Amino acid sequence: MKVEMKTWGALGLATALIGTGLAGCGGEAGEGGEAAMVGEAGSAGEAGEAGEGGEGGEGGEIGALPVEQRLVFMAGHVEAGLALYRAGESEAAAPHLLHPVSETHSDERAGLDALGFDPAPFEQVSDSLEAGLPASEVEPQLAAAQANLEKMREAAGGDPAAQIRFLMDTASQEYAIAVKDGAITDPAEYQDAWGFVTVARRIAEDLDAPKAGAVRETLDQMLGLWREDGPFADGEPASAGQFSALASRVQLDLP
Prior knowledge:
Strand order of the largest sheet: 1-2
Structural class: mainly alpha
Largest sheet: 2 strands, antiparallel
Number of helices: 10
Helix content: 40-55%
Number of strands: 4
Radius of gyration: 17 Å
Distance between the termini: 40 Å
Strand content: under 5%
Oligomer: single chain
């Protein structure tokens, strides 16, 4: 398995293991390198500082989370990376696509082999990025990577409502880091938030609850905060408050 692509090393990627240990793609977690992350119970915890070279703050590791949460967390990053790669933004896509192939993110993959994790398409995508190939030349591998994530999600099972709650908490935290004072200050986290909402919307198709339709409608509104063609970090973003309000509405409508 490819560990690190040398062309990505210059990006200075840092893994912020903060709060529950959820690792964002950005090098810094908010101002001063600090952020509050939400744990399984949905309560914000004190965060450590995000350092370089994968060093993180105290508060546990993502490997301690249930496998279905780690899986949708990884899926959110990959969704953002694949969308950016398909749009020709390979440099922006690279850090998001590290998650399934880099030892830096090995905690996320713990237990996924039993669910049918197939590293081959992810390694092929990694090799294609390193070689500078356009996404159009490796579309079968991109589709295979997405299909493998979906297969694992179905095998993992779990409560769709609980997974959506987890993704709403995580996306809200990422978006609050990404958007400050009406500007996108952390493009990677802005893209991550899109990935988490995208995965939540897919999971919502499996939601069987009185307000399932309302949940799907609100998630569609959340996705509408970004450009239609992907999570591009340009233009004037919606405020973190607006994003949080929509995420809260989703939470309230969940069973």
